[in-house]
Design goal:
- This protein is an alpha/beta fold and 328 residues long.
- Helix content is 36%, strand content 20%.
- It starts with 6 loop residues before the first helix and ends with a strand.
Length: 328
C-alpha cells in the first residue's frame, strides 16, 4: 500500500536531516512523526521513526550523564546561527539575554554575577538565533574556554556601558581578543598580522543609553572614533532599540527568510526557511528536500523583483520574504 505522504512530511524530514544537535533532531523527529498519516501503508515508516526517536532520547540521556565532566563552555549549536555576547563586568549582558530569550541568567547590579555561559533562543522575524551570555572578560583572568566559545560564533555582540569609561572598555576588549588571535571584522585592516587571526563579524552594542543626555554621549563616542563601525545604542531598561538591534543581527549574519507555498495551497508564513542572502531557487529547493535538487523543473515566486507568481528558473536569486512554489 502506498504511503501517500503529504508535503509537510518532506519539509519536516529535511528539517530533521539538517538539524545539528541531538535536542534539535528530537524536536524535528517528533514533528516529522506527527505529519505521517495513520494507515496500513505507513505502519512500517511510523515504527522506524519511533525507533529513531527512542534511540536519540537514549543518546541524549547518556550525554547528559557524561556532560557533567565536560566543560560548561561546550554548548551545542541551535537555531539558524549563534551570537555570543561579550563585555566587561556589569555592562548588561545577562539583562539582554533575559529580555530577548526565555533563558534565566542571574541578573544583578553586583559585579561578576555571571560565572558561566548561559544560552537562550532569540526570535527575530521568525528566525531563531542562539544568544549566549558569557562571564565578563577581564585582564586579570578569563578562562581560555571562553575564547574557544567566541570562535564558534557567527556574530559577536561587543557590549559596552555608556555610563562607564566607554573608550577604555572598548580598547580593553579589543586588546584581549587580539591577544587570543581574534580580531573584529571592522578592525581587520588596522591590526597587524590580522591575516593569521580569526576574523569575527562584530556589532558594538552600547547599553544604558537611558535618556537624551546619554544619547548625546553616544553620539560623541561615535564622533571621536571617526569610524564607520557597526554600532548601535540600546537601553535594556527602557527596551530602546532592541528590535532594531535584532534586525541588524540578521543583516550582519546575512540571513533571509523564504516561505514555501505548496501548489494550490496558501503559503505557510509561520515557519520560514532560513538561507544566506544571495541564495537561489536551486539552493532553496535543496533546503526543502535534498531530492528536490534533481527533481526541480521550475518555480513560481511572489515577492521582490518579480510580478506575483512569476515563473523563474533554478538560478533566480531570492530576496528576504519571498514566497516560493516549487514545481517538480
Amino acid at each position: 500500500m502506498p504511503a501517500n505522504l503529504p508535503p509537510d512530511y518532506f519539509a519536516a524530514e529535511e528539517k530533521y536531516r539538517t538539524a545539528e544537535s541531538t535536542s534539535a533532531k528530537i524536536a524535528c523527529l517528533e514533528e516529522l512523526i506527527s505529519t505521517v498519516p495513520k494507515h496500513k501503508g505507513t505502519d512500517h515508516l511510523r515504527a522506524e521513526l519511533r525507533r529513531k526517536l527512542s534511540r536519540l532520547k537514549s543518546e541524549q540521556h547518556k550525554r547528559k550523564s557524561i556532560s557533567r565532566h565536560e566543560s560548561e563552555y561546550h554548548i551545542e549549536k541551535e537555531g539558524a546561527g549563534r551570537i555570543v555576547v561579550i563585555g566587561t563586568t556589569n555592562v548588561g549582558k545577562s539583562s539582554l539575554i533575559a529580555q530577548l530569550t526565555h533563558a534565566t541568567p542571574k541578573v544583578s547590579e553586583s559585579p561578576y554575577t555571571t560565572w558561566g555561559p548561559t544560552p537562550g533562543m532569540m526570535n527575530i522575524k521568525d528566525v531563531h538565533l542562539q544568544l549566549i551570555d558569557t562571564p565578563p572578560l577581564s585582564n586579570n583572568y578569563t578562562k581560555p574556554e571562553l575564547f574557544d566559545l567566541i570562535r564558534t560564533s557567527d556574530l559577536l555582540l561587543l557590549m559596552l556601558d555608556i555610563q562607564a569609561f566607554l573608550i577604555q572598555q572598548f580598547d580593553d576588549l579589543i586588546e584581549m581578543l587580539v591577544n587570543h588571535r581574534i580580531v573584529t571584522e571592522f578592525l581587520k585592516d588596522k591590526i597587524e598580522d590580522s591575516d593569521s587571526m580569526i576574523i569575527m563579524p562584530t556589532m558594538i552594542v552600547v547599553n544604558k543609553v537611558d535618556n537624551q543626555q546619554l544619547q548625546a554621549d553616544f553620539d560623541t563616542f561615535c564622533e571621536l572614533e571617526q569610524a564607520d563601525w557597526p554600532v548601535i545604542p540600546v537601553s535594556i531598561q527602557n527596551q530602546y532599540n532592541l528590535d532594531t538591534m535584532g534586525k541588524r543581527c540578521l543583516e550582519m549574519m546575512k540571513l533571509m527568510r523564504i516561505f514555501s507555498k505548496p501548489p494550490g495551497k496558501e503559503p505557510d508564513m509561520s515557519q520560514p526557511y532560513v538561507l544566506k542572502i544571495g541564495s537561489t531557487i536551486d539552493e532553496f529547493a535543496g533546503k526543502v528536500h535534498r531530492d528536490f535538487i534533481n527533481q526541480l523543473k521550475n518555480a513560481r515566486v511572489w515577492g521582490t523583483n518579480v510580478y506575483d507568481g512569476q515563473m523563474v528558473g533554478r538560478d533566480h536569486i531570492l530576496n528576504d520574504g519571498d514566497v516560493v512554489e516549487l514545481h517538480l
